Amino acid sequence: MEKLSLKDLMSILLPGLYTCIAGYMLFYITNNFFIDTSTGFLSLITAKDFVGALLLFMVICIAGSIINGISFYLIEGKYSKHYQQHTGMYIGAATLVTKSPSLKPIILFLNNDCNTLFGKSYLPTTEAANKTIQENYFDYVFYYLSVHNCKEDTLREQSFYFLYRHLFNANLILAIIAIITSSYLCFSNSTNLVLVLSFLAFILALNYCFFAPLAIWHRKRMITRMFYQYYIHKTTILNKQ
Questions:
Q1: The pTM is what?
Q2: How far is CA 126 from the centre of its chain?
Q3: Number of domains forming the structure of the chain
Q4: Could you list the residue range(s) of the whole structural domain that residue 104 is in?
């Protein structure tokens, strides 16, 4: 069996653990600060034995996998444009390369290399006109580094990017649940309503003050390191030849 990777930890386990803890806190607040763990499924996962630990681990993995799937759907699905406009969480690699001062010295190399491989430069005047080529070239560079075992830095930055992006999306889901819950509490419990709204404000502040900026920052670092690692490796081989 393969070892647990940093990517698995960052993109599945930690977001799953965060979602379970935050969801538990929200349920605890709305249920008058009491949760009965003596019966039902909660009694199993809170039991201090091997079965309880295994079930809890499974719940965390399932929650993390759901968040992971939702995150990729929001980026690749039909709502991707709206998601990007409102969150700024996903910026195309070609856009980052164009705007990155640190990548300017190797843009000519990337254009020539992409033209050799796919018959077109990587950065045309309009990105939309060459989107498929850009995506194919990005995939080629990523898998090239994988084959040559020189993508450790890229994977580390990608893992942190996934972590903060998934935490951001987990908070979006929790925010929706909190809004629905607060609308119900308007007619029943004003004290709990204030606490739920405070919880909502807190996770939204986390999202837009920490998780989103950190995710964007790590994505920029990932793209920069990936292309530079590719450039260094490729030019080193060419010089040897």
A1: 0.85
A2: 27
A3: 1
A4: 6-240
